[in-house]
Design goal:
- The protein has 280 residues and is of the alpha+beta class.
- 19% of the residues lie in helices and 31% in strands.
- Strands 2, 5, 7, 8, 9, 12, 13, 15 and 17 form a nine-stranded antiparallel sheet that branches. A four-stranded antiparallel sheet has the order 6-14-10-11, with no helix packed on it. A three-stranded antiparallel sheet has the order 1-18-16, with no helix packed on it.
- The protein is globular.
- GO terms for molecular function: phosphatidylserine decarboxylase activity.
- Pfam families: PS_Dcarbxylase.
Amino acid sequence: MSLTTALTYALPHRLLSSMARSLAYSDDPRVSRWLIDTVTRKFNVNLDEAANPDPRSYATFNQFFTRALKPGARVADADPRSLVMPADGRISQLGKIEAGRIFQAKGQSFTAAELLGSDEDAKPYNDGLYATVYLSPRDYHRVHMPWTGTLRETVHVPGRLFSVGPAAVNGVPRLFARNERLVCHFDTSFGPMVSVMVGALLVSGVETVWSGEEIPAYGDRITRKDYRGQGIQLERFAEMARFNYGSTVIVLLPPGVAEFAPQLGAESPVQLGQALATLR
């Protein structure tokens, strides 16, 4: 384990993330411009793809960080049977959920039940598939629907806010099942589907298109919201949620419904809209 990763065990995660949130939402131009310039330069952000490519026109760093893309910058895979990639970034891991466990890194795994906060919620995904997509600070930070789905329930699972960078993924046991996260359950034409928005150190918020801000407020207990009967349907490739800093989204699929695109593997760079999997 790296020294930086080891130090994160002792850091006041929520305090640091709250401080980062204050900076991200500051409308002081000296603060916002410094943050935007720093991130743009350090992470080589491609502003040519942004609907608004002028970094000086964003009132806050958060507005810049959650910027929309220009029309046509991303398109959904042409095969109507393709489940599409939910975000820009890279594949951390993907594969089969074996004996209820999801592979994180060499020597590291966690259970689907731990991730979702419930043994019952994990049952439909026994022997199913998972895909973990890491969004770096340079990436587009809105998460979209892999497939058309009707929102059934969200589950806010409290936890820590470890970094989700490669060093932490390799070094922190059960990382994604320990970090604070928002579990989004959907009903689809092939059965249930889950998208999990995993928070991280300095991630100061998760927002959804149906209810706005979900994290914070940081939780101290599991909170469920039932959306059955409300008719909240999101189309394949439609925006679902957004992060206010780089993090991770994990998609779970039930067994027997799809096969991953053959070119995908650990560390594969990916873009929103490309084929994630194909329905059988």
